[in-house]
Amino acid sequence: EGDVTFSRVFMWDINKPVTLKTHGIIPIFYPQCGVDKSRCLGIQQKRVGAWVVGFKLHFLSQYLSSLQLKGGFIFYVERETGNFIASSDAKFDTFRTIVDETT
Questions:
Q1: How far is CA 21 from CA 43, 63, 93, 102, in A?
Q2: Nearest to 75 by CA among 86, 65, 66, 67
Q3: What tens digit of pLDDT does each residue of 5-58 get?
């Protein structure tokens, strides 16, 4: 329960497959009242830690390409940075920098 945030997308090359990754960050409070403030009336919660979950994003392109779109193209872009994340074209290299429309 509560606020979940995500890190920026970054390249992960520590283990295979080399892929893009993001972290989901979930704060841990004490006492644990959850989002319903009536559980701990009059008690101030303190953030005592965080639970971090890593999400590898290589499966996104695999999933999108399995949709077998008819004449269409889907791609994901990180809203904050504009970085390319995944596409429905399985041949498209996620780590390639596009110089112009012919590459």
A1: 37, 16, 15, 28
A2: 86
A3: 888 888 888 887 778 888 999 988 888 887 777 888 888 888 899 999 988 877
pLDDT at 48: 92
Please state whether the predicted TM-score (pTM) of the whole model is above 0.90. no
Among positive and negative, which fits the CA dihedral 91, 93, 94, 99? negative
Q: Are 29 and 47 in contact (CB under 8 A)?
A: yes
* Length of the chain (residues): 103
Using alpha carbons only, give the angle 45, 47, 49 rounded to the nearest 5 degrees: 145
Cα–Cα distance, 7 to 85 (Å, whole number): 14
Question: First vs last Cα of the chain: how many Å apart?
Answer: 45
Strand, helix or coil for residue 86: strand
Query: Quick one: DSSP state of residue 100?
Result: S
